[in-house]
Specification:
Elements: E1 2-15, E2 21-32, H1 34-43, E3 49-62, E4 68-83
Parallel strand pairs: 2-4
Antiparallel strand pairs: 1-2, 3-4
C-alpha cells in the first residue's frame, strides 16, 4: 500500500487586499495498492504533478477535544504522471 498527499490549488484571478497572490489550497490523502502502489512509489517525487482517478471517501473521526472532524481521501484506481519535477 502506498499513501501520499496531493495538493489542489484553486487560484483567484486577483490579488488579495494585502497585495498577495491568493490561492485556496486543499490537501487530500491518496491511497493506492498492489502494482499501482509499487510503480508510483518508484516514480513519484515531491512536486510531481499527477492526475488521480478513483473513489472519493469522506471519513469522520473524533479529535482529542471530542469534536467530530471530517477528512477526504481518494482510493486510487489509476494515477497518471503529468509533469515530473
Amino acid at each position: 500500500m502506498l499513501v501520499f498527499f496531493v495538493e489542489n490549488r484553486m487560484r483567484k484571478e486577483h490579488l488579495s487586499e494585502a497585495g498577495e497572490d491568493s490561492a485556496k489550497i486543499s490537501v487530500l490523502k491518496v491511497a493506492a495498492w498492489g502494482k499501482l502502489a509499487q510503480t508510483m512509489a518508484n516514480k513519484l517525487r515531491k512536486g510531481t504533478a499527477v492526475l488521480v482517478e478513483g473513489k472519493l471517501a469522506s471519513l469522520a473521526f473524533e479529535n482529542r477535544r471530542r469534536e467530530v472532524r471530517y477528512n477526504m481521501e481518494i482510493y486510487a484506481s489509476a494515477i497518471q504522471i503529468i509533469e515530473v519535477v
